[in-house]
Predict the structure of ABC-type xenobiotic transporter.
Amino acid sequence: MAEGDAVRVRGLRKRYGDVVALDGLDLDIRAGEVFGLLGPNGAGKSTTVEILQGHRSRDSGEVSVLGADPAAPDRRWKARVGIVWQDESAVTEMTVGETVRHFARYYPRPRDPAEVIALVGLEAKARSRVKELSGGQRRRLDVALGVIGGPRLLLLDEPTTGFDPVARRQFWELIRTLAAEGTTIILTTHYLEEAEALADRLAVIAAGRVVAEGPPGSLAGRAEARATVHWAGPDGVERSEETGTPTATVTSLARRFDGEIPGLRVTRPTLEDVYLRLIGQEDPR
Ligand SMILES: Nc1ncnc2c1ncn2[C@@H]1O[C@H](COP(=O)(O)OP(=O)(O)OP(=O)(O)O)[C@@H](O)[C@H]1O
């Protein structure tokens, strides 16, 4: 395992009966990065995250998380790996503050509960009962419980499902704050704009294997992909031209129009375009 790696996975396989969930998955995640796992329903993302957490067994393959095998975790390792459960805090009459303080007692060196409540933006709700929180506030509390032990690695499975756009952006800020503190973060998501906004690197999983890996801006040759120049013709109808040299195309258009080019746009494949191509579902537009 290279120094600076938080996670190393080689040839990971997992079947559930006849279903092959993971079919030789490889992953390298560096310490301190935000790493996104993308892939269609049933691709194997949750299975991967659960194996990394030590909550699901594997059939074969090597897995190292913070230098240890999650299949044989010790107490110290467990304190260093933060897990965000959906609705960990669901059925309780306790207040937010009581819940966070209660969970802090499980860890050898917990973070300060008041600081964690502030980190997730629940200060105003510290004295509210958990059952009175909204769905988004409950998820923030789940994150608070995931980080109260002061983990070096945080695993999040679809953390913002069901969030409104404002709550989602607030959650992104929380992830960025945790990342700036040095926490390695692995998250699965179906929101490509979330992956693009948060992840330093992404892996696209399809049918239990990694089909592409890299920074969102250059995944699968995205940075080198041909551009499309769009403009409006004299009749107002949009024209477009795909080109490897968009500057030359724009220069020649500027000459032709003798100045401003009406309706000028230069586009490159979006993360969604690249993602759909990778999973074999190209948009036929
Ligand atoms: N406990 C289980 N028993 C049987 N099959 C399972 C179990 N958990 C997952 N599977 C199957 O394994 C495959 C991978 O599932 P997994 O939940 O890892 O996918 P996922 O990428 O997280 O999907 P989603 O995006 O829908 O959450 C699927 O075909 C799923 O039906």
About this structure: The first strand starts at residue 5 and ends at 16. Residues 16, 19, 21, 39, 41-47 surround adenosine-5'-triphosphate (CB under 6 Å). The chain has nine helices and twelve strands. The CA atoms of residues 26 and 164 lie 34 Å apart.
